[in-house]
Design brief:
The complex is a heterodimer of chains A (226) and B (255). Chain A is mostly helical and 226 residues long. Chain A folds into 2 domains: 10-118 and 204-225, no CATH class; 125-191, no CATH class. Chain A has 10 helices and no strands. Chain B is of the alpha/beta class. Chain B folds into 2 domains: 3-84 and 163-254, Rossmann fold, CATH 3.40.50.300; 93-160, no CATH class. In chain B, α7 links the parallel β7 (163-167) and β8 (194-198). In chain B, α4 (101-111) crosses α5 (116-129), α4 (101-111) packs parallel to α6 (145-157) and α5 crosses α6. The chains are: A mainly alpha (226), B alpha/beta (255). The A-B interface holds A 3-4, 112-114, 135, 138-139, 141-142, 180-181, 184-195, 200-202 and B 48, 51, 53, 56-58, 77-79, 82-83, 85-87, 89, 91, 93-95, 97-99, 103, 106-108, 110-113, 116, 119, 139, 141, 152, 155-156, 159. Chain B: Residues 5-242 form the ABC transporter domain. Chain B: It comes from Fermentimicrarchaeum limneticum.
């Protein structure tokens, strides 16, 4: 499930704000430097970060399930369009997507959602949007579980998902329960004094010496890449 | 007695379906009121009107006036009313969103901007009250349904509101836990809190409520002291159950 995995690694201990800065930096490199060499180096950095965090690579593989098809599809499309050189372009696009997904997931695996919310509010991200984002991330595992429950209950009535069939018997109940849950959650939040225009965050994030070191390192890395 | 909830000519309909019709009700401070009725009789809707969720968050045709703790519910935001009114909804899975049990209880207190020390002491007090203190650092998602229900209730009670509204709070609790919950509610009632609880378990109301309302088709069918309402044969016509204790007692009187 895409959720915070408790740990005490260097990546876990890094402040949520520093992680967001580095996440944006790495994504910026990925978007602006789209050549195969840079993408391979970025992939190695991503693997190193996973190694440091102690999160096994099998975790995102499990969490994304069939979603990995979207990483493979570009290679196939480019091969179809240009059989001679398409493979390189296809691999580049796939590596690009793969890195974005893996780096973003690592941030979610190693940072508590409340810390992500605090960091976003710190960066003057609109608080309503930050809270909505936090809630969406929080409910991903719940929705995944709900989908599994629906899949089992439909399978008990003889429904089997084939590659060519539209998953309407799965989507409709999931959508219905999600909307109902969203409405009830809104009622519950407001009934407990939540005011989206005035979000109060009780615990403040504190930068440690290691976080300052990472921040000082950033301009050096920036000049190295650009 | 000071009136805590005053409802005058309340009618509410979702689209064209009338849910509540011409409801008039007065609940005094310190009362323990049970609300019963068949499915679709408007019990949960009535509860949602008492903390301003209807008409603030749920759209529909709203007529009449509701004054709760001296505030007209149409003129105040739900978050403002929440300072005096706490509500526990039926499904705890739709209310719990924090990653840790303690954060869920602290949520409402943080919204009120209470000092950190006060938040921590209340979190501990209410988690202990519901036997959840050992789970304080766990993900609420991994709790049992009964524990989730207790957590949702603890999260509302920690706000220490004057008026507590509960929608079928014992639906996912076993008998022991439900009795324990009603014991806590009864103690809160003794110190002056007003309790309004929608409940299907008439036995539980017989033991705890001072007054019972019966809703049928969006109207108040019966309203009075618990024992006299719950022994009225009209409630069986609505598909509700007369508590066994009262049935046995009436048989003995007749025999």
């Amino acid at each position: 499930m895409i959720a915070f995995i408790p740990g005490n690694s260097l990546v876990h201990r890094t402040d949520a704000r520093v992680k967001i800065i580095y996440l944006v930096f790495l994504l910026f490199i990925l978007v602006t430097k789209q050549n195969l060499g840079v993408l391979v180096v970025m992939s190695l950095i991503t693997l190193l970060l996973y190694q440091l965090s102690g999160i096994p690579l099998s975790q995102p593989c499990r969490d994304l399930g069939r979603g990995w098809l979207f990483v493979v599809i570009p290679i196939l499309l480019h091969l179809l369009i240009n059989p001679q050189t398409g493979i390189y372009r296809g691999i580049a696009v796939s590596l690009f997507l793969l890195n974005i997904i893996l780096i973003s997931l690592l941030d979610l695996y190693t940072t508590e959602i409340s810390s992500i919310l605090q960091a976003l509010v710190f960066f003057k991200f609109p608080s309503e949007l930050a809270f909505t984002l936090m809630i969406s991330i929080r409910f991903l595992p719940v929705m995944q579980e709900e989908l599994n429950r629906i899949r089992v209950s439909q399978a008990l009535r003889g429904y089997g998902l084939t590659p060519l069939s539209l998953p309407i018997p799965l989507i409709v109940p999931l959508l219905h329960s999600s909307l109902k849950r969203a409405m009830e959650l809104a009622v519950s939040l407001e009934s407990r004094g939540f005011d989206p225009e005035n979000i109060h965050v009780a615990v403040e994030l504190k930068l440690a010496a290691m976080d300052y070191l990472f921040l000082l390192l950033l301009p050096f890395l920036f000049s190295l890449v650009f | 007695m000071v009136e805590q909830i005053g409802i005058r000519d309340l009618s509410f309909s979702y689209r064209k379906k009338a849910v509540l019709s011409k409801v008039n009700l007065s609940i005094s401070k310190g009362e323990f009121v049970g609300v019963i009725g068949p499915v679709g009789s408007g019990k949960s809707t009535l509860l949602l009107t008492m903390n301003g969720v209807i008409p603030s968050l749920v759209s529909g045709n709203f007529e009449g006036k509701i004054v709760v703790c001296g505030m007209d519910t149409r003129k105040y935001k739900v978050s403002e009313l929440s300072r005096s009114v706490g509500i526990v909804l039926q499904d705890p899975n739709s209310q719990i969103f924090s990653l840790k049990v303690r954060d869920e209880v602290a949520f409402a207190l943080e919204n009120r901007k209470l000092p950190r020390g006060e938040i921590e002491s209340r979190v501990e007090k209410y988690l202990r009250m519901f036997d959840l203190l050992s789970k304080r650092d766990e993900d609420p998602h991994n709790l049992s349904e009964g524990q989730k229900q207790k957590l949702a209730i603890a999260s509302t009670l920690a706000m220490e509101p004057e008026l507590i509204l509960l929608d079928e709070p014992s639906s996912s609790l076993d008998f022991g836990a439900a009795t324990e919950l009603y014991g806590i509610l009864k103690n809160l009632n003794k110190i002056g809190r007003t309790i309004v609880v929608v409940e299907h378990d008439t036995e539980m109301l017989l033991d705890n409520a001072d007054r019972v309302l019966v809703l049928n088709d969006g109207r108040i069918l019966l309203d009075g002291p618990t024992e006299s309402v719950l022994s009225n044969p009209k409630i069986e016509k609505c598909g509700l159950k007369i508590p066994c204790t009262l049935k046995r007692a009436s048989r003995r009187v007749r025999g």
